[in-house]
Design a protein that fits this description.
ten-stranded mixed sheet; Alpha-Beta Plaits; single chain; Elongation Factor Tu (Ef-tu), domain 3; globular
């Protein structure tokens, strides 16, 4: 049986997971009458809801007596730590590009990683059945991108397929037959090399994906580089610098067959397997025969660029909605996350009740918070802040991102103005057809925190913004913060419709009537720049006088709905987001007004 290992790489939402569905169906992995969920590879609840892939996953298909191991990777740069490691497991890659949207920042990101590893990608121009598809234009864009990323002559000579993943066909030419995925299977077999590995050498494997399993403990997935692995054999693990981590017995070897895992007695060089039996070994470590002395070189992970403080929820409503509220529980959960997610870093504060969590971006940290609240945790989250560096001369450097924006021409002016205020430099501006423009900026990560919601408002929800880490560049100076102050509750109790109605001229509310509030909780946005303490608990004074118009029903403007991402982006440095399984509340760091004044005075001094 011939073997191939491939990764599917693309910008987010260009159809990777849908394409894998079709490959599984057409290879006969599913029965004709078997019901399988759409995007079968996105198993996590958050992945299904958001329609994005967060965790890399492996599967395999059997086609005409050959086995093809396929790894589905995330498209978001926030989860780029996953993409880099996956590419070390495979010998080929399918680069998917949307025939209408064309080359986007993450396309550049994932392709750059693949070319750097020496892979020769197969290009799939996907979704060519879209009404706004421009496959020829996109094909030229892809060639230019390969050239811009210093592809070799061999890599530039890439084969191209035109496909519709949703409709289940691929063709070697635009006007070729549109029947099934057979051209794709054939191209993978002819273009992707077989895995190379000395079967006679001692066993060695690089751990690439880590996942906890309730029955088997830690499962480490990777590709066997050399030799054979057998169930119950003795093995050791080494870190990237060759230091021994632990000796252990391999208790289970699992291989991917379709969407299921089957237990194997033996596997050999080139195959992708999951191994159980190690307690301390993690991603980027080498698992090998005791005779092996050198670790397999592993890709260093791009550094985190943004950090948030996670701390114990100490509001007056703490402990009423979640069952995991102590710092010890939060600590254990965060350190468990770091084991499998190498793009995250966690440091503990000296007081032991707060933790600094550093990651690639707001999305990655937002997904972690959302997972924790669904597991029953209560947390207080601080404002995201970027991680600065210093160069050799002692100058301050900050993370700069490449931002690509697609907007209707009517809105390009306001986008350029807003991003310029946030210290972004306009690099390129060109029409992208259909009355739209594509703008490219280099913007400091600091300036982008909290901008996305404003961007959607400015473009009436029609704009598309994509971001990608570019480099650490010179510090751009101060950036103006949120202009409006907030409305703060001055007491504990339940909000009253009559009081809120009287406060409407002060600014839009973020809560509804009948909601539990406490002193120091943010209940709305002030129309002016200063914060204002207000009373939302005051009911209507009842009298026996009936004046005309006195007893009309109170009509309130609908409140601003605060999602988790919106709340994290909205808060200032002196504010927190209180996250529980049932609610997301905004609050001041110091609930007592006197403490707030003292903190303001000391920060001003």
């Amino acid at each position: 049986m011939s073997l191939r290992n491939i990764a599917i790489i693309a910008h987010v939402d260009h159809g990777k997971t849908t394409l894998v569905d079709q490959l599984l169906k057409q290879s006969g992995t599913f029965r004709e009458n078997q019901h399988v969920a759409e995007r079968a590879m996105d198993s996590n609840d958050l992945e299904k809801e958001r329609g994005i892939t967060i965790l890399a996953k492996a599967t395999s298909v059997d086609w005409k007596g050959n086995r093809i191991n396929i790894v589905d990777t995330p498209g978001h740069a926030d989860f780029g730590g996953e993409v880099e490691r996956i590419l070390s497991m495979v010998d080929g890659a399918l680069l998917l590009v949307d025939a209408a949207e064309g080359v986007l920042p993450q396309t550049k990101f994932v392709l750059g990683k693949a070319l750097a590893r020496g892979l020769k990608p197969i290009v799939v121009v996907n979704k060519i059945d879209r009404s706004d598809a421009e496959p020829d234009v996109v094909h030229n864009q892809i060639f230019d991108l390969f050239a811009a990323l210093d592809a070799t002559e061999e890599q530039l000579d890439f084969p191209t397929l035109f496909a519709s993943g949703r409709n289940g066909w691929a063709s070697l030419s635009l006007d070729g037959p549109r029947e099934n995925m057979e051209p794709l299977f054939e191209l993978v077999m002819s273009h992707v090399p077989e895995p190379v590995g000395d079967v006679e050498a001692p066993f060695s494997m690089l751990a690439t994906i880590l996942e906890p399993n309730p029955f088997l403990g830690r499962l480490l997935t990777g590709r066997i580089q050399t030799g054979k692995v057998k169930a119950n054999m003795i093995a050791k693990s080494m870190s990237r610098d060759g230091k021994l981590i632990e000796n252990s017995r391999i208790s289970k070897i699992l291989a991917f067959r379709g969407l299921e895992r089957i237990s194997l007695e033996e596997a050999s060089a080139g195959d992708i397997v999951a191994i159980a039996g190690f307690e301390k070994t993690t991603v980027a470590d080498t698992i090998c025969d005791p005779a092996v002395s050198e670790a397999i070189p592993a890709q260093p992970i791009d550094p985190p660029t943004i950090a948030m403080t996670f701390q114990v929820n100490d509001s007056p409503l703490a402990g009423r909605e979640g069952d995991k509220v102590t710092s010890r529980m939060i600590r254990d959960r965060l350190f468990r996350e770091v084991e499998g997610n190498v793009a995250l870093g966690v440091t503990e504060s000296s007081g032991k009740d707060s933790f600094e969590v550093a990651g690639r971006g707001e999305l990655q940290l937002g997904v972690l918070i959302e997972q924790m609240r669904r597991e029953g945790f209560e947390l207080s989250i601080g404002r995201p802040r970027v991680l600065f560096r210093e160069d050799e001369a002692g100058n301050r450097l900050e993370p700069i991102e490449e931002v690509q924006v697609d907007v209707d021409e009517a809105y390009s002016g306001v986008v350029v103005q807003k991003l310029s205020e946030r210290k972004a430099d306009l690099i390129e501006m060109k029409p992208s057809g259909g009355g739209k423009q594509r703008l490219t900026f280099h913007a400091p990560s600091r300036g982008l925190i909290g901008y996305y919601g404003e961007f959607l408002t400015d473009t009436r929800g029609t704009g598309i913004m994509n971001r990608l880490f570019h480099e650490y560049g010179a510090y751009k100076g101060p950036i103006p913060a949120r202009r409006n102050g907030v409305l703060i509750s001055n007491g504990d109790g339940e909000s009253v419709a009559y009081a809120m109605w009287n406060l409407e001229e002060r600014g839009p509310m973020m809560i509804e009537p009948g909601i539990k509030v406490y002193q120091g909780m943010i209940i709305g946005e002030h129309t002016r720049e200063n914060d204002l303490e207000v009373n939302v608990l005051k009911g209507k004074q009842l009298t026996n006088i009936r004046a005309a118009g006195k007893d009309e029903a109170v009509k309130l403007t609908p409140p601003i709905r605060m999602t988790l991402e919106k709340a994290i982006a909205y808060i200032g440095d002196d504010e927190l987001v209180e996250v529980t399984p049932q609610n997301i509340r905004l609050r001041k760091k110091f609930l007592d007004p006197n403490e707030r004044k003292r903190a303001e005075r000391s920060s001003a001094a």
